[in-house]
Amino acid sequence: MATSPIQSDNALLAEIIVREAKNDGIYYCVQGAELDRFSYREYREMITPSDLYVLNRANNVSDNNIIHMCGWAGVKNRIENWKDYPAKVVNWAVYVEDMSLEEGREYFGGKTVLGGFRNTRPGVLFYGTEKEVRRFTRELVSRFGKEGLIIGADCTIPDEVDYNRFKWVIEESRAI
Q1: Do residues 104 and 90 touch, judged by C-beta distance below 8 A?
Q2: Which end of the chain is more exposed for a tag (fewer CB within 10 A), N or C?
Q3: pLDDT tens per residue across all 176 residues of the chain
């Protein structure tokens, strides 16, 4: 299969981000595997080759790449489409997919996981008190363990979330 200009440009961008911008790796977002969109076979035939082209090129310049399995629409994905994607760290919409970090660690073969916090309402990052945010952080690390965990959110966190909440998560994580 011939490479498209889009996948070639994305692969080149990934390389430049690591080599020239001196980033440790890329955060590669995959989408389109919602249950109501493509079958597993269709996705693997039409989308996977492009994703793998970019990820393999990124892995040629860094071992520290993250794959973000976006749950932007709030619809469950055929997450099995991405199970074998080559990335050191995996991030998915824990609350959309109904797959805990612990289950995900096992499902993705022991890879490092990124997540734990819901990025939408009614998540603790939106409405929790300082005490609740700190307690959630501590419970997250206690349940999962420190090894192979990067604390983060299911997806991009909206601008309206007070940045002090991130500070509480960082401070509590460091105190554990």
Answers
A1: yes
A2: N
A3: 678 899 999 999 999 999 999 999 999 999 999 999 999 999 999 999 999 999 999 999 999 999 999 988 788 999 999 999 999 999 999 999 999 999 999 999 999 999 999 988 888 998 899 999 999 999 999 999 999 999 999 888 888 899 999 999 999 999 99
3-state per-residue secondary structure call for the chain: CCCCHHHHHHHHHHHHHHHCCCCCCCEEEECCCECCCCCHHHHHHHCHHHHHHHHHHHHHHCCCCEEEECCCCCCCECHHHHCCCCCCEEEECHHHHCCCHHHHHHHCCCCEEEEEECCCCCCHHHHCCHHHHHHHHHHHHHHHCCCCEEEEECCCCCCCCCCHHHHHHHHHHHHC
CB 173 within 8 A of CB 141: yes
Burial zone of 114 (CB within 10 Å; 0-12 exposed, 13-18 middle, 19+ buried): buried
Task: Please name the amino acid found at residue 176.
Answer: I
Query: For residue 120, which amino acid is it?
Result: T
